[in-house]
Structures are given as C-alpha cells and as structure tokens.
Write a structure and sequence with these properties.
Layout: H1 2-13, E1 22-24, H2 36-40, H3 46-56, E2 65-66, H4 73-77, H5 82-87, H6 91-98, H7 107-131, E3 135-137, H8 158-168, E4 175-179, H9 186-191, E5 198-204, E6 214-218, H10 225-238, E7 244-248, H11 266-279, E8 285-288, H12 297-310, H13 322-333, H14 336-340, H15 347-353, H16 370-379, H17 382-388, E9 392-400, E10 405-413, E11 416-430, E12 433-443, H18 468-481, E13 486-489, H19 494-500, E14 505-506, H20 509-521, H21 527-535, E15 539-541, E16 544-545, E17 553-556, H22 564-573, E18 576-578
Parallel strand pairs: 1-2, 1-3, 3-8, 4-5, 4-7, 5-6, 7-8, 12-13
Antiparallel strand pairs: 9-10, 10-11, 11-12, 13-17, 14-17, 15-16, 15-18
Helix pairs in contact: 3-12, 7-8, 10-11, 11-12, 13-18, 20-22
Bound molecules: zinc ion.
Length: about 600
Amino acid sequence: MARARTTLLYRLRSWLHRRNVSVWYDPRYRLPLSGLEASAGMEPRRADFAIWWLRECGAVPPSAVHAPRRITYDDLARVHTPELLESLGRPEAIAHIFAVDASDVPVDEVMTTIRLACGATLAAARETLRTKDPALNLLGGFHHAAPGAAGGFCPVNDVAVAVAAVREQGFSGRVAVLDLDAHPPDGIAACLARDPKRWIGSISGSDWGPLEDVDETIVPEGAGDAEYLEALAALLGRMPRPQLAFVLAGGDVLARDRFGKLGLTLEGARERDLLVATELEGVPAVWLPAGGYSRHSWRVLAGTGMALAAGSAAPIPPDYDPLGARFTVLSREMSHLELTESGELSADELDEALGMRPRRQRLLLGFYTASGMEHALYRYGIFEHLERLGYRQFRVTFDSSGLGERVRVYGEAEAQEHLLVELVLERRRVLSVEVLYVHWLSLRNPRAQFSDRRPRLPGQEVPGLGLAREAGTMLARMAVRLGFGGVVYRPAFFHTAYAARHEFAFIDPERQGRFEALVRDLANVPLLEATIAVAEGRVWMDGEPYTWEADEMAYWLRESPADAGEVERERERVHFSLVEPSSRPPDAP
Ligand SMILES: [Zn+2]
C-alpha cells in the first residue's frame, strides 16, 4: 500500500505538461438537501472529493485554489426575470427544481450554494481573461436555466450571468460555449439568444428537439468513447476560435449515469478533456462540471482538473476513498487530549458533583468525553453540515442502553430540541478480533417530511440526514484510534446494507455472495423500490420467496478474513428476481 502510494505520487509529480490552473471551490458547494443523494443518485460531495484528490495527488497547489463570493442579485438580474429571482425565495420553487420535498429545503443555504457557484464562474471568467490560463470552477454549468424559467437542477444560469457581466465591463470578443454535458444546452441557448458574438456547440445523448443557433450533435444512446470522441473532434473542427470559452465537462457522460444516456468510460471522459484542453491552448477558458448523477461523477471532475493542470491521463486509483482519506488526515490532527478533555464543568456537571442529580456516564468506550465527541463532530464538518440543514446548539450525551453504550446528538431548530443521531456501541469480539460493534445507528432529520418525493424507507421514523457515509467513516476512525480490528453491524434492511457495501462486507462469505447476487440482479430497480420489495417478501431467490438475512457485516481495518472464492461461488450460484405485486402468488399477503 505504502509503495503503491509512493509510486503514484512519483508518477503524478513527473507530469510534463504543467499549466497554471486556477480552481474555485467552497465547502458550501455541497447542497444542503438531505434527500438529494437518494432521490437523484447525485454525489453531493462531488466538489469536496475532487478538490481533496487534486490536492493530495499534487496536481493543484493550495495557492491555486480560490474561495468564491456569492453573486449579487444585480448580476443575476442582467439575465433573469424578477419573477424567477423572486420565486427562488420559496422552498416549493427550489424543491421543484431539485425534485426534492419542500420540507427538505433550507432556502437561504441552498441559494448560498448556488450563488457561490455563480460568483465563482464569474470570477473564473475574469481571471482567465486576465491570465489566459484555464480556470476550473468545481460547481456550475447550470445550463438548463433560461431567463424566466429554472429547471433540471439549475435555478439560475451561471454561464449566461458571467457572460453578461464581462460584456457589461466592455468585453466584446467571441464567446464559445462547448456543452459536453449529456443533455442539451436549452437554457444557455435561450439566455444568449441576443448575443451576436456567441457560438454554442454541444454533444448530447438525449434529443430534446432542435435548439436555435446551436451546433448540436445527438449521438445514439449508449454511445461509447470512440463514437463520442469522433463527434467531438468534428465539433472542435467547426468551432470558430473564441476569445473566451466555457467548457461544460459534464460528469453524466459516464455509462450507467442515472439520467445521462451515453456510455463513456472514465478514460474516455479524460480523453475528451485532454482533447478540448489542447484545442483551447492559449484561449481564456472556464471549465465547469455541469451534471453527473452517479457515484463516479467526482472522478470525472477530478479528472478534468488533472487534464487541465498536468495534461495527465493517469487514472485515479479505483480503490481510492476520498472520504476515508480525508477523515484519516483529520483524525491524525486531533490529539487524544482534545477527545478526552472535558473542559469546564457545566451547570449539570456541577449539580452532579454536588450530589444534586445522579452522575451520568463520563466516558464513551472508556475514552471519549462528551465534549471530546462534540469536538470530533465539529472537526469532521458534521456540525457545519447540520447547521446548513437548519439545526443549532448541538449537544452530545452518553448513557447506557440494554445493549451497549448509547450516544445521542441533539440539535435545536425552531426553539425546539431534536434528536439527530442515536448510536449504540459495544466493545466485542467477533472471529476472535476485538471490534467496535454497532448495535444501532439512526441519522434523523426531523424537520424534513416524508412525501411522494421522499418516501419512507423500511425502519425509518423520520427522513435521514444524508450523512451515512460520514457516520460509517467516523466509526472506522474511532475504531482505529481505540485499536480495534474492525467495525461490525447487522443491517436490518437491504438499503442499510446497500449504503454500507463499499466499506462493509458480510462476515459469512456465502452470505456476502448472496448479497452481491441480490445487488447484481436488482441493479436496474431503484433502491427504494428494491428495499421495499425485499422487506415485503416480493423478491425471490431461485424461484423461492427470499427473507432478508440480517447477518453481521464487518469493515475490517487490518486484513479481511473472507475467502473471495467462496463469495464468488455463491454469487454465481444464486439468482434473484422481483415479483410484481400483481403477479404475486394468490396466497401471498
Ligand atoms: Zn446533464
């Protein structure tokens, strides 16, 4: 592992084609919509993952990263109608744009994300006009927003707003928009319709009808790298040389994207960026990520950064886990003292010390104090995210439940305290390894409501927080700090096992094989439908009704004792099928 890392760094540092790329990023680029990941298959941490990787691999030095400022409403008003801008103050309007439930929308925070992205696209345009070096904004390319209508995850049009602002300042050169998102640039075409010196070129996998004054190529559904790159070369051949370019390097060109219909590989997407970067050498250019609705879309964006900064075609290691790497660094920065120090006595603690109330449990797993745990949650960025979801005044408590030690995290919203996280942990031996055993983990967003857009998952009392990956990664860091060999839990439902599947595997190899077969056979069924079908007994294994096996899953921190051969044999042996409600056997419930 260490050697692989060294080799990687060596390879990355030995790149030849260095360019000075400026990068725009803000941690608030993560949309504070807790249901988005589940509903749209979007990776809300895409910009975070991309910047962490670009810094870690050395492609982008810290001095090249700029913090954006929110765009002003004056800037937005050059392009958008007052009616549209006014509507963006209403949760229902934003909920419609992002296809989430209105109860899940903290309006000001969502608009902060969007306005930061727009501010960055404009700042990037000004910077690249000044330096002629490419500029990469890690959020933006909201190409579906028209002057009077938002749509498709695009509340406003950052590209058009940036063009209008630089025009206002006297820039009169030709602007080219190269839209390489998987969908057509309908909003950009509408916004720039009256700009006489604009050229818009696009390659799409979806045909939404003709767009006026757009050089559009519709490639067939599922088109792969070769077909796409051929169309791109032809499009670049027709592009008049611009004085300012915007490149929408969409992440939804990847095969198996939730909404994009193309079939590119990660290598193909990188090849696309390298081709365009070479073509635009010396031309001021703003690069934007646009869409991307798969787990791997961050790799396309990080790849765009590598293509721009270093002309690199080197792949990002497939097993690189950006969140795990980030939390490992943060965890190392936290001293034992910070996590075990209880600080000043609170009023409650004073009462306890005076014997006026019963003493509470002091330490979690004999190590963490409640204030140490609060400190860790703050350092991992969890509290900041919870604040963006509308909670304040966080408080951590420890006590014991029947099963183990219980941690609860509370936060206030609308003058009321809510339970946000509940966790029951135990120190236990599994397969003779001491592990952190998680009896219960519940991530709760009580301000959000269930609806058609956010249906209740089996076992949920209230909607989740969208922080399951952070929770799993934090537990792993805790286990490392305490010297455990792994983290173990028992997923009560298909969706909880599914969410954990990148880090955790069933301890029993045959059970893991059956789980992998289930994931394989239900790959085309939306997760929500799949987990409900499994819970309702509508999934059959080899022709027999299948009952979910809530066996233990482990995240081994040292080596995995599982036998890959046994997993594979079982996976190939069994086959699952979904029984439609109408075709259930007559005696089924
Ligand atoms: Zn798209």
